Amino acid sequence: MLSIDFVLGICTKTSRCISNVRTLKISYGLVLDLVVKSQFARNMSLLKDLDEKAFQWLDKMAQNTWCRAYFSTFPKCDVLVNNSCEVFNRYILDARELLILSMLQTIKGQLMTRHYNKQKEMDNFVGTIYPKIRKKVAKNVEFANICYALPAGKGVFQVQSRDCQYIVDICSKECECRRWQLIGIPCSNGIACLRHERIPLNLLLPVAT
Fold this sequence. Notes:
Layout: H1 4-14, H2 21-32, H3 40-50, H4 52-59, H5 84-91, H6 100-123, H7 131-143, E1 147-153, E2 156-161, E3 164-169, E4 174-175, H8 179-183, H9 188-197
Antiparallel strand pairs: 1-2, 2-3, 3-4
């Protein structure tokens, strides 16, 4: 996956002059964060008008590797940047300065402690929905307050969300915005439809097993 900062660095190198780097970063972010394919061409056109070489460099890459609108819905993950390597390198920063055997023993001890602490956290966990999922749901519930769901029958709704309209099918757990399909958690549009049908939200959430 390509981060905004990484692509911005490449774009600055491929361009002779970028008058407003912040504008370029925002334009790239608009393309990268898209979840609706119909908006992709429009935002890419904005990026092209801003910097032709940056557009050409980005256009050569497979869209499903850097734009949410083309991500597969199978993994149930919309993460654009995976910082696992950086996190692990920082985690073993002190151990890397040791001799090889001492380094391995230190890393082993760190991992054992981490696994133990995580196990203790799970032993104290109460409920069926994980904390991070609860936070995402709470955010979507708040956004659902500005969504108006109009039923079309058989679980299909037309949802007005500010200036946009989306088609939602609660039976197949799909929304035209694709956020529901990407992470498996009902988006704000889907929650508005579930409210209309008085369906408890927790019935459609991933649960702890």
